[in-house]
């Protein structure tokens, strides 16, 4: 090598060595991302997550949400988010929204498939909740967050029957653009699972591929995807991305075959759909923290079933694939 080339090689090796010993580098692979986050002075995020309250089906939705908001105001996370199936956008549910608004910090919403039951539109849901939009993104503490709307219509004549669970080309193009414009480590929220082919997004494979392609261009950009919808508690890691299912705050649906009146006759009369569920005695939610080394910590709530357990009723658990449990697991997911 020539003398100036030796000097250039030495400086390059020195720069690489500095990045290797930096603890931040484990999470933020690109130099410009490291610089962006270090300038912010914060490389840690902590947020509260609750999903699938189903206020219009259960009888104690206000109490369950009040417990969540009360604890969040004590814990003081950077923000809270509910991941869908919260309530219908009708005036009778304004008291529930008043509870949500008692959180003393930023709060965000994800639209679920049941939020539009009764003929309501997703635009009405956004307005009622005072949400940012049907899908959107935001930054907090050196992290980027993407909220998807998995309730769009699949135009294919061969689509499965039932609720819409699809990401349109318009939203997909928006997602690609949003991912290309951020250099921050990214967390994605979607009501339906991208990793669950039993009722998850119909084009979940395409969505996972889109996130993986973003990571090829910028290593480790998309860290984690959080979902609700399935009322279960599980975790998958697919091609370097962590997929975490957050259990319902309220129950799992069992259907007519396993119906059981689990509360009083008076409650059953007011909330007749409850007998088709196995409720959790206490509300469930989780606190999520991601540290400067890229470690993800999830602290969940635990409860017990009200009435007979699915096993006692003889429920074929293979129909649900993942176990039916009245808790959200504590998890430590390494970088």
Structural commentary:
- There is one protein chain.
- The protein is an alpha/beta fold.
- The chain has one domain (32-333): Purple Acid Phosphatase, chain A, domain 2.
- 28% of the residues lie in helices and 19% in strands.
- The chain contains 9 helices and 14 strands.
- The chain has helices spanning 3-21, 31-40, 61-75, 94-100, 122-129, 169-180, 204-217, 265-270, 310-313; strands spanning 45-50, 79-82, 107-109, 136-140, 143-147, 186-190, 222-227, 234-238, 241-245, 251-253, 277-279, 286-290, 296-300, 331-333.
- The strands form 3 sheets. The protein has a 6-stranded mixed β-sheet with strand order 3-2-1-12-13-14, with no helix packed on it. Strands 4-5-6-7-9-8 form a 6-stranded mixed β-sheet, covered by helices on one side.
- Helix 3 (61-75) runs parallel beside helix 4.
- The protein is globular, with a radius of gyration of 22 Å.
- The two termini are 38 Å apart.
Fold blueprint:
Layout: H1 3-21, H2 31-40, E1 45-50, H3 61-75, E2 79-82, H4 94-100, E3 107-109, H5 122-129, E4 136-140, E5 143-147, H6 169-180, E6 186-190, H7 204-217, E7 222-227, E8 234-238, E9 241-245, E10 251-253, H8 265-270, E11 277-279, E12 286-290, E13 296-300, H9 310-313, E14 331-333
Parallel strand pairs: 1-2, 2-3, 5-6, 6-7, 7-9
Antiparallel strand pairs: 1-12, 4-5, 8-9, 10-11, 12-13, 13-14
Helix pairs in contact: 3-4, 6-7
């Amino acid at each position: 090598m020539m003398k100036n080339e030796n000097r250039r090689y030495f400086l390059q090796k020195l720069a690489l060595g500095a990045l290797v010993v930096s603890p931040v580098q484990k999470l933020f692979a690109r130099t410009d991302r490291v610089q962006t986050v270090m300038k912010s002075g914060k490389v840690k995020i902590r947020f509260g997550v609750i999903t699938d309250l189903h206020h219009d089906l259960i009888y104690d939705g206000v109490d369950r949400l009040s417990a969540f908001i009360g604890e969040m105001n004590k814990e003081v996370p950077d923000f809270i988010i509910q991941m869908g199936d919260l309530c219908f956008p009708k005036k009778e549910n304004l008291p529930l929204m008043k509870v949500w608004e008692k959180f003393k910090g930023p709060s965000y919403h994800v639209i679920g498939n049941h939020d539009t039951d009764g003929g309501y539109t997703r635009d009405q849901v956004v307005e009622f909740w005072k949400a940012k939009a049907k899908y959107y993104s935001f930054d907090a503490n050196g992290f980027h967050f993407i909220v998807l709307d998995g309730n769009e219509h699949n135009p294919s004549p061969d689509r499965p029957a039932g609720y819409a669970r699809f990401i349109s080309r318009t939203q997909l193009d928006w997602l690609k653009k949003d991912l290309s414009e951020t250099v921050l480590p990214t967390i994605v929220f979607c009501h339906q699972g991208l990793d669950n082919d039993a009722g998850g997004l119909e084009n979940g494979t395409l969505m996972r591929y889109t996130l993986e392609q973003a990571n090829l261009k910028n290593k480790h950009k998309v860290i984690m995807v959080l979902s609700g919808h399935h009322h279960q508690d599980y975790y998958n890691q697919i091609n370097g991305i962590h997929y975490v299912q957050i259990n319902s705050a309220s129950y799992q649906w069992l259907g007519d075959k396993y119906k059981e009146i689990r509360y009083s006759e008076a409650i059953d009369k007011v909330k007749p759909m409850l007998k088709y569920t196995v409720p959790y005695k206490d509300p469930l939610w989780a606190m999520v923290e991601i540290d400067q080394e890229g470690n993800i910590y999830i602290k969940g709530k635990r409860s017990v079933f009200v009435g007979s357990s699915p096993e006692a009723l003889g429920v074929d658990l293979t129909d649900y694939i993942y176990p039916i449990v009245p808790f959200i697991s504590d998890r430590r997911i390494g970088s």
